[in-house]
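Figure 3 (text version): structure tokens given as input.
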């Protein structure tokens, strides 16, 4: 292998994600022989302003085939990147953005651009002889992130069996990454035992959390609380709750419609419900508590919420530096979810991370509900010193691949590798 880091070959193929849906995998080979590979994930609950996965339509794979996106990689993208230095990630991604020329990557497909962008980063780190997390960090600080790990799945991930999309826990009492996973493993197992004993276990949702048969949304909160206690940990001290409401999914004509509770609430009544949950349960993080276009509700809620609460924008911010800057001016939230495929390129995701730092926001690097064995985001969370990561549950190999990769990174980093722990919530 030589030190020539110019891009010599870009090749895409169809592979399949955790739902069995087609997605795009890209291999990048450099002139010196270094190689990189990445796979595009896909979301079920998607913001209207995020990069678009290009799908073929028609009858094949239910219209979800990606052969047009693959052809875009193998022809237009491969030609445009030939001879570009892989170490110049900003130039690589600017080339992709210019070649596409649309705000949401609708021409090439966000699935084509994100897989290519990440594959180039993997190839460049291989050429440098560095793990991707260290390559991304450069001389900057790194840390192992505090995880948000799904215990129960609902919303679009579990056929709306409960309205809340993700009920997660954060092991704030952990001192190391290994300890964090061990704590959550106990909570996850306890939740499954409780649901099975009560005849309320349907299966697992898209991200590996249990699919519960519960009558009310608060029943799900009670179940998670009991699971923490059953696992031998103290709610609020060792383990806290994080919710992804994905409220855009159940907002109808300015009202929040909770099917489980047979309730239709205006924004004020819904905010009161959330504040009551935060007071009653050890909830430290709420993601997308309001619809993506309900700005006034976001701003009012942020004023009323306790200072300890992390209010996270996902569909509201769509991994956009400009949207994060605007939210900081509005004081609409204090944390941002970072999804590389939501932006479409690694450079745009890193710009969003930089915006969170400018704003003093928390940052949570996140997977998608349609995931793969790709572990790029584990490296990004560490290399960007993001502080938090959200991958899904403590089950299913596409999820465990990321958790296990972080165990390897912890071992490689040794004693010098810090664990962000509860300090990651300092922004709230």
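Below: residues designed for each position.
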């Amino acid at each position: 292998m030589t030190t020539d880091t110019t891009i010599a070959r870009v090749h895409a193929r169809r592979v399949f994600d955790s739902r069995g849906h087609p997605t795009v995998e890209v291999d990048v080979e450099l002139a010196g022989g270094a190689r990189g590979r990445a796979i595009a994930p896909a979301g079920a609950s998607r913001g209207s302003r995020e990069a678009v996965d290009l799908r073929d339509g028609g009858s094949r794979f239910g219209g979800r085939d990606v052969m047009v996106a693959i052809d875009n990689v193998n022809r237009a993208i491969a030609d445009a990147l030939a001879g570009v230095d892989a170490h110049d990630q900003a130039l690589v991604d600017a080339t992709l953005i210019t070649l596409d020329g649309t705000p949401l990557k609708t021409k090439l497909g966000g699935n084509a651009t994100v897989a290519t962008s990440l594959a180039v980063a993997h190839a460049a780190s291989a050429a440098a002889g560095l793990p991707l997390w260290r390559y991304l960090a450069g001389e900057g600080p790194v840390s192992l992130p505090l995880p948000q790990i799904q215990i129960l799945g609902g919303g679009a991930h579990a056929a709306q069996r409960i309205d809340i999309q993700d009920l997660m826990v954060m092991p704030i009492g952990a001192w190391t990454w290994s300890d964090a996973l061990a704590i959550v493993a106990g909570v996850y197992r306890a939740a499954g035992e409780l649901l099975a004993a009560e005849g309320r276990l349907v299966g697992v949702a898209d991200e590996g959390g249990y699919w519960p048969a519960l009558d009310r949304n608060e029943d799900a909160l009670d179940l998670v609380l009991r699971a923490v206690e059953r696992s031998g940990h103290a709610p609020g001290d060792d383990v806290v709750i994080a919710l992804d409401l994905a409220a855009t999914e159940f907002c109808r004509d300015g009202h929040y419609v909770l099917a489980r509770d047979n309730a239709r609430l205006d924004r004020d009544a819904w905010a009161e419900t959330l504040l009551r949950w935060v007071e009653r349960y050890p909830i430290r993080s709420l993601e997308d508590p309001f619809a993506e276009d309900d700005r006034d509700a976001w701003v009012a809620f942020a004023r009323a919420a306790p200072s300890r609460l992390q209010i996270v924008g996902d569909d509201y911010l769509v991994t956009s530096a400009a949207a994060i800057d605007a939210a900081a001016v509005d004081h609409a939230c204090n944390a941002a979810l970072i999804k590389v495929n939501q932006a479409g390129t690694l450079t745009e995701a890193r710009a969003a991370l930089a915006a969170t730092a400018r704003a003093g926001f928390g940052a949570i690097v996140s997977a998608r509900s349609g995931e793969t064995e790709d572990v790029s985001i584990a490296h990004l969370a560490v290399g960007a010193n993001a502080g938090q990561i959200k991958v899904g549950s403590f089950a299913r190999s596409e999820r465990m691949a990321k958790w296990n990769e972080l165990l390897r990174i912890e071992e490689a980093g040794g004693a010098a590798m810090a664990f962000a722990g509860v300090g990651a919530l300092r922004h709230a």
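Residues 177-197 form the longest helix (21 residues).
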